[in-house]
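S.,

As promised, the NJP run. Input:
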Amino acid sequence: MPFHSPLATRHSSFVIRRSPFQFPHLCTMKNILITGASSGIGAASARMLHAKGYKLGLMARSTDKLNVLAAELGERCLVLTCDVTRYEEVQSSVQQFVDVFGQIDVLINNAGLGYFDTLVGGKIEEWHTMVDVNVKGVLNCLHVALPSLIEARGHVINLGSLASHQVFPNSGVYCATKHALIAISDSIRLELPDKLRVTTISPGSVDTPFINSTSNAQMLDQYKDYFAAGLRPEMIAQQILHAIEASAGGVISEIIIRPNRSMK
Ligand code: NJP
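Predicted complex:
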């Protein structure tokens, strides 16, 4: 069976191949589970990865949006309705994915949200939800997927943020949740260096519906143009693809990407 990879270069009628054994993961790095695939960065990543031939598990709560995306993409997609804060739902989704595709080669922990507010004005339910989705949701997915990922010598990609590295006003709890992802990524790297690759993708503001979660009307007004002028989600998808496909030569531990605010 021909081995098609980024290392296989077509010259008119023949294909130059390198031995799969030199780069064993390229033979199997096919099945990608994306959380938060119904919108923004997750949906853009699904489109880009699908175009490259990967098989995808599309996870989110919004079945209708996932179905629309899956219909657009066609075959090689599995819709997995799942709230990442519910461990049993994550278990069931991961099981379905493994039943259909065999193993998880890449887990993209992308589902997340942020509510902009001051510490004094912040709502406790919103703080809890950010911790539940951005931290516990990632841990739920990691815990359930780890055995399959290890078996596959796979790759975990965590969606961090500039807020993983610095604290911004009016988003202190969000920043805390994104700081936690650095610790989670580092612990994977330290404990499983010969079994898993791990990459943290840390973007600045990205033009997605992300900011629309903010319930404080004044904050929404203050930030919405800032996010609208942010990075395109396809730019983040491109970094995810790069992290997956570049891993033949080395592991990309982290990509930090900021909007080019000098552009008009
Ligand atoms: O946001 P959005 P982004 N269970 O709102 C899903 C980080 N980030 O693409 O369940 C399962 O378009 C939700 O699906 P649904 C950010 O922190 C962003 O911008 O159907 N899924 C949707 O698919 C996040 O980690 C910016 O509502 C749940 C997705 O999450 C990641 O990028 C900057 C869920 C959110 O899509 C993607 O965000 C930055 C749950 N309980 C980092 N709750 C930025 N946009 O500026 C939510 O540095 N989802």
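Residues 35-42, 60-62, 65, 82-85, 110-114, 133, 137, 159, 161-163, 203, 205-206, 208-210, 227, 230 surround NJP (CB under 6 Å). The CA atoms of residues 138 and 200 lie 12 Å apart.

- D.
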